[in-house]
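Design job #97: recover the sequence.
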């Protein structure tokens, strides 16, 4: 059994697909508009909810607004087997991500709303939920102080933390000593360690720093050598949420006892499946789909 707790953002994604991006002062026609649940935290929780077996558990801690999006976002978590008892409702608008899909890639403007109000100050039962977890997953769409106090608490209690520093912020380095895994992409890694080469950085944090490289896969250092896990080519429909699916796959596989390299192979399959459908959560796979994937090998299997 694995118990994972995700603390983070729960947002509504307002997605415009377009063949042209507007210049300053210009209006252009978009191709299609959609409104789909998102937020890095909720995306990771939903991906976990779909990957998990009946005996596993994923809980989400966070906040939605008291607007019309709040109940929809909560319902979406529950529909995906995420325990949302500790997702509060605050008197603000829910988090919103305005996403433009252009040229097979996305540009995102994120407004935290309720996510910016997440605070550990009045937590009581929430600490018990964290203490009972096998793994806690954090990202950067809630305030840094929240992440830092949780990471410190988990370190003290011996609970593993996977920290996805996205989007990057200047305070991220403060988290390093308290987390077990940190998973920046190439750009976030450069912001974290501007003076070091990618290879030097991963070598300095072996078995802890995992860098995702988009279509080039991911890398980490296993104390002996650099390990490179290639991406699996895909006909991408929408890459939004691919990183979230990857982080969820990694957290899940590690919590189930896989070694980092195998866990990364598992995460790579999950993210490859996720980009083949529209929406951050649209393509997130269920465990059954993972097992049917041609790259799913025996060494990835766990009960
Ligand atoms: O990682 C993708 C997510 O980040 C989107 O769902 C959107 O909510 C953004 O903030």
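Job complete. Output follows.
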């Amino acid at each position: 059994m694995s118990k994972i707790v995700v603390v983070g953002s729960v947002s509504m994604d307002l997605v415009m697909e377009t063949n042209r991006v507007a210049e300053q002062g210009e209006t252009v026609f978009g191709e299609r508009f959609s409104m789909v649940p998102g937020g890095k935290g909720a995306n990771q929780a939903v991906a976990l909810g779909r990957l998990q077996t009946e005996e596993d558990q994923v809980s989400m801690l966070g906040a939605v607004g008291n607007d019309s999006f709040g109940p929809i976002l909560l319902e979406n978590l529950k529909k995906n087997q995420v325990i949302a008892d500790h997702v509060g409702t605050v008197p603000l608008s829910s988090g919103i991500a305005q996403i433009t899909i252009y040229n097979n890639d996305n540009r995102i403007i994120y407004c935290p709303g309720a996510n910016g109000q997440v605070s550990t100050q009045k937590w009581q039962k929430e600490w018990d939920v964290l203490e009972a977890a096998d793994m806690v997953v954090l990202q950067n769409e809630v305030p840094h102080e929240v992440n830092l106090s949780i990471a410190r608490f988990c370190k003290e209690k011996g609970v593993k933390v996977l920290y996805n520093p996205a989007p990057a912020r200047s305070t991220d380095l403060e988290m390093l000593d308290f987390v077990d895994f940190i998973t920046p992409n190439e750009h976030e890694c450069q912001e974290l360690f501007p003076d070091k080469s990618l290879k030097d950085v991963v070598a300095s944090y072996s078995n802890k720093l995992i860098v995702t490289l988009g279509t080039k896969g991911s890398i980490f250092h296993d104390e002996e050598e650099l390990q490179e896990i290639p991406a699996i080519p895909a006909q991408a429909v929408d890459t939004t949420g691919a990183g979230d699916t990857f982080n969820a796959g990694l957290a899940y596989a590690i919590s189930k006892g896989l070694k980092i390299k195998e866990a990364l192979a598992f995460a790579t399959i999950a993210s490859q499946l996720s980009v083949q459908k529209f929406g951050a959560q649209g393509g997130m796979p269920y465990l059954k789909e993972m097992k049917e994937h041609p790259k799913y090998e025996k060494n990835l299997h766990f009960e």
